[in-house]
Amino acid sequence: MSLAAERYLDAQYSPERVATQCGVPADVIERIALEMAHVAFKETIELPIAWTDVYGRRHDKVVGRPVAMYAMRGVSAHTNGFQSCRALHLIQMLLGALEGPGNFRARAPFPKPIPPAQLPENDAAVMNAPDTPLGRTPLGFPTRPEDLAIDAHGRPLRIDKAYSWESPIAAHGVMHMVIANAVAGDPYPIDTLMLFMANMAWNSSMNTGGVQDMLREKGPDGEYKIPFLVVSDAFHSETVNFADLVLPDTTYFERYDAISLLDRPISEPDAVADAIRHPLLAPDRDVRPFQEVLVDIAGRLKFPAFTTAAGGRKFRDYPDFIVNYERAPGIGFLAGWRGENGDKPLRGAPNPAQWQAYIDNQAFFAHHWADNQKYMRFANRDYQQAAVEAGFIGKVEPIVMQIYSEPLQKFRLAGQGLYEGPCPSEPEDRERLVRYFDPLPDWYAPLDGARHYDALEADNSGEGGYAFSAITQRPMMMYHSWDSQNAWLRQILAQNFLYMNAATAAAQGLRDYDWVWVESRNGKVRCQLKTMEGVESHTVWTWNAIGKQSGAWGLDRDASESTHGFLLNHLISESLPHRAGERSLTNSDPITGQAAWFDLRVKIYKAAETGVWPQFAPLARLPGDEDARPSVIRWGRPQGAQR
Predict the structure, then answer these.
(1) Do 355 and 323 contact (CB within 8 A), yes or no?
(2) pLDDT tens for residues 222-278?
(3) Residue 630: how many CB atoms within 10 A of its CB?
(4) Is residue 190 within 8 Å of 621, Cβ to Cβ?
(5) Is the peptide bond before 109 cis (omega within 30 degrees of 0)?
(6) Residues facing residue 45 across a β-bridge
(7) Measured torsion, CA atoms of residues 434, 440, 443, 449, in degrees rounded to the nearest 10
(8) What is the phi-psi region of residue 245: left when phi exceeds 0, alpha when psi lies from -120 to 50, beta otherwise?
């Protein structure tokens, strides 16, 4: 606490100093801080709910300090996102505003010990050995340099460079760098790349045009830098045309899926919840769900977890796998209706009728916590005993919230050359560890801007500075590309605009439906503008995945998605601006490897021309596609049909 007090009472954190960086006036910063303190300590909430803490002490009430904060992609998708999130959580800890009524409360299977005990596989001999299962999971949470996936010379073992000195705590991997790294042969060349659940030649990638060029790139021998590309997709996405092999997938209407507690469940603070999808339509073509194919292949290849003691296939198909696979005795993918008779929530033997039980309950399961389990779960024995039984945590013990992070300090010491274990040899790695792996939450400017834009004049005119932050977000009715070609959704949104604050637009001489150039260090796009009140004056935004390449997704070649829709992705680089003598570095949070989707800075000016730019060549039709598209799609009874 003394280190934190010394740090944050320094003049660099004063409202007057911070105001010059964030644009919020100093008096407003001070007012908000005082309001939070007043609400937390003068307007405390108390509920008469008895509970027992992990030390066995009985409490006759729960106390809430009703200041709630939530940080997800909007905060984390920056190169300074991890430390920004930590700063928010530090405020919550200091206010006592966690896990009480009116506060931020974790959703099952969280809270978990900090840091989580799961480590990524980092043994090169195991990772490269044929017919050998990994000893650990592919993803995890390194706590020290010894946990990194690097070889004896400090080079990354993974093609995405996750868990290397460049992105040490990349809990989700660094997916957006796979194609660029593979084409560069850094850290090594590959012979086969499989893509699924992401449209990496279009809206799931930064630098879309550049990525398409990478997928076409050939070496001196005339062979593609990525020799063999496998794509699994239910639709004719922009990525499909680059594939050497297409594994046709089913749509959500035609397959089983588990929205599992072992992945990203739909839990609420008061209830454990998960869900399924189940087929509503029978496929009318020769196609199988991709996960069904994976289970089939795993059985044929005799993967240990998919093989019986007698050497046969352990799982008949994907639904059978979801029901009968157990991570630990009684713990599987789905938490509802377990036990042979379907009467065991959270933990129990496999239930052969589990899918039907979900279907009978509208595809959802929820187990509601008792009142004495709902709050203070970092120290609530009543909750933790249930969490241990359900397999969420290993034992009943305090979950200690960390103001000072020992794992981050170990990596910083490695950058300083003071750590007794592995230390990086490259100067850029040492610099990043020392600068960004602060054991106390620390704000620093986004890396892309710090390297490129800050030296430019920020007047936003013509060739001037890059005065706007630009963000692209997923439409709630479509999410990714998936389903955005559906006729009933296209009626909601079939083209996108760039949205700008109305007063800002007026000051720039811009109006609704003007064609504008949006330019970044990586390129520029031309699109139409719309104004609105509800956006910050120096921020512009648009929907992602509305813009399509002509000929994709079964749409007409002149569909509005390709003639009027556009992507901001073209403007975002997957790499930071290059410095002389330094290798290329990912445009990601240097701690977590989280892609910096929201660090994009642009300048905007009126275009003399009209029409969306850039335009990509129309995709060739797939074999068997006769190019027939109905001009009008109707629902209901055909005209003239009898009732």
Answers:
(1) yes
(2) 999 999 999 999 999 999 999 999 999 998 889 999 999 988 889 999 999 999 999
(3) 8
(4) no
(5) yes
(6) 64
(7) 30
(8) beta
What CA–CA distance (Å, rounded) separates 39 from 101?
13
Residue 281, CA atoms < 13 Å, CB-side half-sphere = 9
Find the largest Cα–Cα distance for the chain: 84
Contact assessment for residue 241 and residue 616, using Cβ atoms and an 8 Å cutoff: no
227-247 burial code (b ≥16 CB/10 A, e <16) = eebebbbbbbbbbbbbbeebb
Rg (CA), the chain: 27
For position 452, what pLDDT does the model report? 55
| Mean predicted confidence (pLDDT) in 611-628 | 89
d(CA 639, CA 643) in angstroms, rounded, equals 11
**Burial (CB count <10 Å: 0-12, 13-18, 19+), residue 19:** middle
C-alpha dist (Å) from residue 209 to 213, 357, 404, 615: 6, 47, 42, 10
- How far does Cα 603 stand from its chain's mean position? 27
pTM above 0.70, yes or no: yes
- Which pLDDT belongs to residue 71? 79
**Are β-strands 58-59 and 51-52 bridged in parallel, bridged antiparallel, or unpaired?**
antiparallel
Separation of alpha carbons 302 and 312, rounded Å: 8
Residue with tokens 């601006």: 577
Residue 195: CB atoms within 10 A of its CB come to 22
Interior CA angle at 333 toward 329 and 338, to 5°?
60
Q: Is residue 120 within a helix (H) or strand (E), and if so which, with residue range?
A: none
